[in-house]
Amino acid sequence: MNWITTLLGNLTYPAIFLLMLLESTVVPVPSELVVSPAAYHAAGGHLNVWLVILFATIGADVGATINYVAGYYLGRPIIYKFANSRLGHLCLLNQEKVEKSEKYFYDHGVAATLTGRLIPGIRHLISIPAGLSKMPYLKFLLYTTIGAGVWHSILAGLGWYLHSFVPENELNDRLMEYGDYIKWTIIGLVVLAIAYFIIRHYWKKRKQ
Question: What is the greatest pairwise CA distance in the chain?
Fold first, then answer.
């Protein structure tokens, strides 16, 4: 995948769009190594940070839609067959990962399309169970856009912040370091948000 390496080294708006499209399907492109470096360069005046977030989010929407359509029209047997194929394994995909995303979706309902965009390992696959369950597309697109927009804004903020004190040749190492902190912080926030909505739901039910 040398062409992906080439795109990562030349982050234009079309490249950001394409890489985030791929990241939202099944191609293992880490968004941390796309959006944050793009925002880093935006802080240096080479790109516009708002356009970075916009193109990244639109790319994520298009990629997520591809997964949604695949789930909607192909069905579970074909999705599993691809996940277990050699090509699926080359994309770091397997049936267990798809089942994990399905479980997350069915455990948390349609809001999982939003919160799932923030969770590593779930983010790029959560669109498949949304399609399998025939979730209304406009609702799916709205939640996906919000979730992807939030995630890309966080990554862009990190890249912008690092520009003030991190040399470019150390950027990827720092991104991996800070990326882990961000991932676990977001997972914690998502867990708290889910717990809040569950408690709120049962509290209202008890009142009734």
Answer: 60
User: 60: part of which helix (H) or strand (E)?
Assistant: helix 49-74
User: Measuring CA to CA, which residue among 99, 100, 152, 109 is closest to residue 130?
Assistant: 109
Per-residue model confidence as pLDDT tens digits over 23-64: 888 787 888 888 999 999 899 888 999 999 999 999 999 999
Phi-psi region of 134 (alpha: psi -120 to 50; beta: other; left: phi over 0): left
Residue 51 is predicted with a pLDDT of 96
Q: Which two tokens stand for residue 196?
A: 């809040």
Domain ranges for the chain: 2-207
Instruction: For the chain, report the end-to-end CA distance as a whole number of angstroms.
Output: 57
Task: Give the number of residues written for the chain.
Answer: 208
Tokens of 63: 């990629």
Q: How far apart are CA 147 and CA 116, in angstroms?
A: 8
DSSP letters for 68-107: HHHHHHH-HHHHHHHHTSHHHHHTT--HHHHHHHHHHHHH
Q: Is the pLDDT of residue 127 over 90?
A: no
Residue 64: closest CA among 106, 101, 90: 101
> Is the whole model's pTM more than 0.70, yes or no?
yes
pLDDT, mean of residues 197-203: 73
